[in-house]
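Please fill in the sequence for the structure shown.

STRUCTURE ENCODING:
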C-alpha cells in the first residue's frame, strides 16, 4: 500500500513491482554461501551506483525513484552508503498480524519461495509440511529449518525489524521515516500527507484522492484488511505461543 501510493507520485520513477531478481543479480546470495541477505557498505562494488540508477532510469525515465524489496531490510547500511541522499520509509505492524501474514505467505511457496529452490539445506518446517524457505534469510536461519512455521515467522519478524531499527539509529532523522500500518487504517490521508512531506514530494489533489480510496482497494492481501485479525485465525494458538520471540522488538516499535 505504501509502495503503490508513493509510486503514484509523478515525481518518482517506479517499476511497480518488487525487485528481488534485480538486487540478486548484483549480489548473488550463492556467492555468500547462502549465509543471509545481509549486505553492508563494504559490499558495494565499483560503478554499482551507476548500474542501479541506470537501470531505474532506463525503465522509468526518472532520476528519483522508489523501490520496495523486503530482503533489502537487511541492507540499509549498504543502501545508505550507495545512495547518500536516500530516504528510508519503514512501515511497522503489530507482531500478531505480521506473523500471521508471513505464515499465509509461506504456504504459497511457489510465489514467495521461488528464489530458494537451490537452498543448500533440508527445510522441514511444521513437521515437513513446508519444504521451501520463503521471503528472506536472516543470519542463523539454518537453526530454524526444523521449527514450527509460527516460530520461523516470529524469528523473521524479530530479525528484520531489529536490523532496520538498528540501521535507522545510524541515519540522520530526515533520512528515516517510520509509520505504523495501523495508523494508515485510521487516517490514510493524514498519514500519507506526513510521509509525502517528509520525503519532499508534492501531496497533490490526485494523490489525496488516491489516499481517500486506498483502503477500498488493498494490494496483494490475503484477507480483508484490519487490526488483530490473527486472533480469529486458525493459527491463533501457534502465533500466541511464538509471540514472546518478538516481544522485545515489538515493544521498541510501540506495540
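FILLED IN BY: designer on duty
SEQUENCE:
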Amino acid at each position: 500500500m505504501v509502495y503503490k501510493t508513493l509510486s503514484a507520485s509523478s515525481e518518482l520513477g517506479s517499476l511497480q513491482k518488487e525487485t528481488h531478481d534485480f538486487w540478486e543479480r548484483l549480489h548473488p546470495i550463492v556467492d555468500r554461501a547462502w549465509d543471509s541477505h545481509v549486505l553492508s557498505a563494504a559490499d558495494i562494488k565499483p560503478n554499482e551506483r551507476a548500474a542501479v540508477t541506470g537501470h531505474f532510469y532506463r525503465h522509468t525515465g526518472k532520476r528519483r525513484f522508489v523501490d520496495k524489496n523486503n530482503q533489502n531490510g537487511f541492507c540499509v547500511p549498504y543502501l545508505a552508503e550507495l545512495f547518500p541522499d536516500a530516504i528510508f520509509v519503514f512501515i511497522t505492524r503489530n507482531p500478531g498480524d505480521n506473523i500471521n501474514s508471513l505464515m499465509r505467505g509461506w504456504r504459497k511457496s511457489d510465489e514467495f519461495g521461488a528464489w530458494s529452490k537451490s537452498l543448500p539445506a533440508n527445510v522441514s518446517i511444521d513437521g515437513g509440511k513446508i519444504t521451501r524457505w520463503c521471503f528472506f534469510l536472516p543470519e542463523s536461519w539454518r537453526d530454524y529449518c526444523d521449527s514450527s512455521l509460527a516460530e520461523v515467522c516470529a524469528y523473521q519478524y524479530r530479525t528484520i525489524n531489529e536490523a532496520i531499527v538498528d540501521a535507522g539509529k545510524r541515519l540522520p532523522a530526515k533520512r528515516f521515516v517510520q509509520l505504523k500500518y495501523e495508523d494508515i487504517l485510521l487516517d490514510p490521508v493524514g498519514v500519507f500527507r506526513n510521509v509525502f512531506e517528509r520525503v519532499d514530494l508534492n501531496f497533490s489533489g490526485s494523490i489525496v484522492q488516491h489516499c481517500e480510496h486506498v483502503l477500498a482497494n488493498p494490494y496483494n492481501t490475503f484477507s480483508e484488511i484490519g487490526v488483530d485479525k490473527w486472533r480469529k485465525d486458525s493459527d491463533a494458538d501457534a502465533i500466541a505461543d511464538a509471540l514472546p520471540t518478538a516481544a522485545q522488538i515489538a515493544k521498541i516499535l510501540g506495540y
